[in-house]
Design a protein that fits this description.
The chain is of the alpha/beta class. The protein contains 3 helices and 3 strands. Helix 2 packs across helix 3.
């Protein structure tokens, strides 16, 4: 079981543990980004499905590069929607440089503009 996010099925519903995702948490699901608009729209569809299945209110898509919204833009939108903490989740097949270096760096830059918000 994940210590930050635990999803149930439709019959069981959503299950959270004490340090899981709360009502004032924003979630950014970030992919690489593409020059192809159609590819980027797939992330929007996934985010909508994730939001519907989990019941989390503040869930935003972001693209690491090549497309908008950026991590910075989505971070700001989460805060604007009332998030007091923002969780950034990479949406990649495998961990690599983007996962371990680029996304944390871009997230740290975005967080500097919102010191009132934890991450």
């Amino acid at each position: 079981m994940s210590r930050t996010l635990c999803l149930g099925n439709e019959k069981v519903g959503l299950s959270q543990i004490s340090n899981g995702v709360g009502d004032k948490d924003g979630i950014i699901i970030v992919d690489h980004g593409s020059r192809r608009k159609e590819s980027n729209l797939m992330l929007n569809e996934f985010v909508a499905m994730f939001r519907d299945k989990t019941g989390y209110n503040i869930v935003e898509p972001a693209h690491m590069e090549l497309a908008e919204p950026s991590i910075k833009d989505s971070f700001g939108k989460c805060v604007q929607r009332g998030a007091s903490r923002v969780i950034v989740s990479p949406f990649f097949l495998f961990p690599g440089r983007h996962w371990h270096q680029d996304i944390p760096s871009l997230t740290a830059e975005a967080a500097k503009e919102h010191p009132e918000c934890g991450r």
